Amino acid sequence: MAAFAHITPARCTQLGNALTAAGLAWKDNGNQARPGLLTYTVTDPHGRRWTIAPATSNQIVPSRPANLWQATCTDAYHRTSVMSAQSVAARIREFPS
């Protein structure tokens, strides 16, 4: 289960803004009323599909409160570490072909 206190509407907006700024096509699952359950589908520059979801409570480190997101790409069988919105967007954009 996600850490609902950490995943706020503002944090979700921050992720959407980071994905847009990185030039990535994305959509969310429409769960804005429950931000802890909001997931994102992102297409990277190579056409691979990524899923971004909130980190689980035990993955969130108090010393890094902005690191709330984890991305998974099934095409490349890759999962990122728990990262900030800007870092996860950059990782997806720069992931090698």
Q: Could you characterize the architecture of this molecule?
A:
By secondary structure, the chain is an alpha+beta fold. The protein has two helices and five strands. Strands 1-2-3-4-5 form a five-stranded antiparallel sheet, with helices on one face. β2 (40-43) and β3 form a beta hairpin. The chain is globular, with a radius of gyration of 12 Å. The model has no long low-confidence stretch (mean pLDDT 90).
Short description:
The protein is α+β, with helices and mostly antiparallel strands and 97 residues long. The chain has helices spanning 9-21, 85-94; strands at residues 25-28, 40-43, 49-54, 69-73, 78-79.
List keywords for this structure.
single chain, 97 residues, alpha+beta, 5-stranded antiparallel sheet
Percent helix = 10-25%
Low-confidence stretches: none
- C-alpha-based Rg, rounded: 12 Å
Mean residue pLDDT: 90
Shape: globular
- Please summarize the sheet with the most strands: 5 strands, antiparallel
Secondary-structure element order, N to C = HEEEEEH
SSE map:
Elements: H1 9-21, E1 25-28, E2 40-43, E3 49-54, E4 69-73, E5 78-79, H2 85-94
Antiparallel strand pairs: 1-2, 2-3, 3-4, 4-5
Helix pairs in contact: 1-2
